[in-house]
Structure prediction request, 105 residues.
Amino acid sequence: MLIKRCPLGSSECALFIVAQLLPRLLGGKSSVATKTHSEEQKSNSKGQQALGYAVLIGGALVSFLFVIAFLLIADRWYIQFEEKMMEQTFGGAYLRYQRRVRRWL
Prediction:
């Protein structure tokens, strides 16, 4: 199996390697730099670009879900714990501050 060298950074190389290996793992042939255009057209795996877009969109969706999970955990668990500790430490002064200032931006 021939994979051309990745000239990009490490995270781009990981995506590049997945894009090169995934079609072969799914039963098709990977397009490499040594193939001619006519040989590439005879490949068993059509839609490699669509597969790449699907992997990219899937990765973006997973990243978005991690951000949402982090915000929910921070809001429901950590910030409430912190506010209770601040109320116990500073009492009425913190409660006045809390009424004056919003929690999020």
The two ends are 52 Å apart (CA to CA). DSSP finds four helices and no strands in the chain.
